[in-house]
Design a protein that fits this description.
By secondary structure, the chain is an alpha/beta fold. It is built from eleven helices and 13 strands. Strand 1 and strand 2 form a beta hairpin.
Length: about 300
């Protein structure tokens, strides 16, 4: 048994189920179950009661909890002593929406944490970033893809719906949703086809046999924003991308339904990354995402991909 086994044990105990713990750890449920069985083999007895819904600690598991926490705390202090003020460094790719909504807070939290994490950020589309992480050119990426194999692991973070966003002169201010079929009447500025959001939109349009009025293909979020603000175009994007303009009244937005266009964001990590750096990044992101889901401002919800 190694340190990782104890971390997995504590996560299952805290989460109360293998499903929830595997989601937070970014590993498959069968793999997590196997690791817990190894801990129980080491202990020589069950540490969890398997219930119809979730798990609970046995008396032996309950006795192990404080010792596991103490061991991990000692290892954490030893690691900080060795690293000093340098901490870990990793490169992170981001798609435009989390680049606006998550990265500023992430960089601040990483720099101020007790175990500093130096993050170099690069922006791109989900496909571009996934390719870079697969080839080891990036350590991790925030993107609309979920993939788990011998090289990569994905930690699900949150799900969000797509909105049609436009200036008040083009898009009415209302809290009501808008049916997908209605967006054909708006002049659109969309991402290139290499973006997951664009492909999702066109998949639905193709099935509905609808002809969208796509005026421009623009990748940079700032350029798209200028087209919305100054040229009377609308965009189909996550609300988080232009949350500041929506809050100020510069833009209006309406959630697209029938069907709802849901995108699920995950942290894709190359398994060659140092385990502690990966864990720290995951912890920081999960904390930020949980806080944002609680506010409800961006329309994020627990990952349902």
């Amino acid at each position: 048994m190694d340190i990782r086994h104890l971390k997995y044990f504590l996560k299952v105990a805290e989460a109360g189920s293998f499903v929830a713990a595997s989601r937070e750890l970014g590993i498959s449920q069968p793999s997590l179950s196997s690791r817990i069985k190894e801990v129980e083999a080491w202990a020589g007895q069950p540490l969890f009661r398997r219930l119809p819904r979730g798990v609970s600690l046995t008396e032996a598991g309950d006795r192990l909890i404080p010792h596991a926490r103490e061991i991990l705390a000692v290892m954490d202090r030893a690691e900080r002593a060795v690293l000093g003020d340098t901490g870990y460094s990793l490169s992170l790719g981001v798609t435009p929406s989390p680049g606006v909504s998550l990265v500023p807070q992430l960089l601040t939290s990483a720099a101020q944490s007790s175990s500093p994490l130096n993050i170099q950020v690069q922006q791109g589309s989900s496909d571009e970033l996934l390719d870079l992480v697969s080839r080891g050119r990036l350590d991790a990426a925030l993107c609309y893809r979920v993939i788990n194999n011998e090289t990569l692991v994905t930690v699900p973070l949150y799900s969000e719906d797509l909105f049609v966003v436009g200036a008040p002169a083009v898009l009415d201010a209302t809290d009501s949703d808008i049916a997908f079929d209605e967006i054909v009447r708006f002049p659109l500025v969309l991402d290139p086809r290499s973006h997951a959001t664009r492909r999702r939109i066109e998949e639905v349009a193709f099935r509905r046999k609808l002809q969208l009025e796509i005026k421009l293909e623009v990748e940079p979020a700032n350029a798209k924003r200028a087209m919305i603000e100054g040229q009377g175009f609308c965009a189909v994007v996550p609300k988080a991308l232009y949350a500041d303009a929506i809050r100020s009244g510069l833009f209006n937005c309406r959630r697209i339904v029938d069907p709802t266009l849901t995108m699920s964001m995950g942290l894709v990590v190359n398994l060659s990354v140092k385990q502690r750096a990966f864990e720290r990044l995951r912890e920081l992101l999960q904390q930020l995402v949980r806080a944002e889901i609680e506010t409800g401002d961006l329309g994020w919800r627990r990952y349902d991909g």
